[in-house]
Amino acid sequence: VTGRANITWTPKLDFTDQTMMYASYAHGYKGGGANPPPPVAQNTGLYRFLGNTITTHPPDFAPEFVNAYEFGTKNTLFDGALTLNGDLFYYNYEAYQVSQIVDRTAINLNFNAHAKGAELEATWEPLPGLRFNFAGGWEDTAVAKGQSAVDLMDRTAGNPNWVVVKPFVTEASNCIFPVDVAKY
């Protein structure tokens, strides 16, 4: 079951022309699915002992669920010359789906994760035709402890003591080695 519940309140405040406050909760779902099959290796040399399929990623990925909480306010002040809006949010993901390129194909992986943050937006028009806008935000995200994936844009994680190499021409994946080992 998915859905969203939203509550709004419009209090009469002396210091604003109009104020609306809101709170919402939403529960969302995105279906899982199958990843493409892994590469098939040549049945020669080293691969004779490994079989003909290399397991580089899971065969499928789980559905994603999110619980989203949000609280905010929208305000008009100074006879409409200023609008000031603010928002706080927290998203808790179960099996968040992340796409990666692995072995020259796109696959999906699952991670438990959360995101929290705040947003602020203001528009001030002190004189007709003169307008100042501001929009800013802060966000903090993290995957669950113990879960990780390789950053495919920087497989060495910026460590100069490691290098990316292709071990065999028939190998679908690159791998990393210590620089000292790769010299030989």
Q: Which properties best describe this structure?
A:
184 residues; 6-stranded antiparallel β-sheet; two-stranded antiparallel sheet; 10 strands; 4% helix; elongated
Write a brief caption for the model.
The chain is mainly beta and 184 residues long.
Explain what you see.
By secondary structure, the protein is mainly beta. The protein has a 6-stranded antiparallel β-sheet, with no helix packed on it. A two-stranded antiparallel ribbon has the order 3-4. A two-stranded antiparallel ribbon has the order 9-10. The relative contact order is 0.15. The model has no long low-confidence stretch (mean pLDDT 85).
Shape: elongated
**Arrangement of strands in the largest sheet:** 1-2-5-6-7-8
**Unreliable stretches:** none
Radius of gyration: 25 Å
**SSE order:** EEEHEEEEEEEH
Query: DSSP strand (E) fraction?
Result: over 45%
Please count the helical segments.
Answer: 2
- Portion of residues within helices: under 10%
User: Mind describing the biggest β-sheet?
Assistant: 6 strands, antiparallel
Oligomer: single chain
Averaged pLDDT = 85
> Span from first to last CA?
58 Å
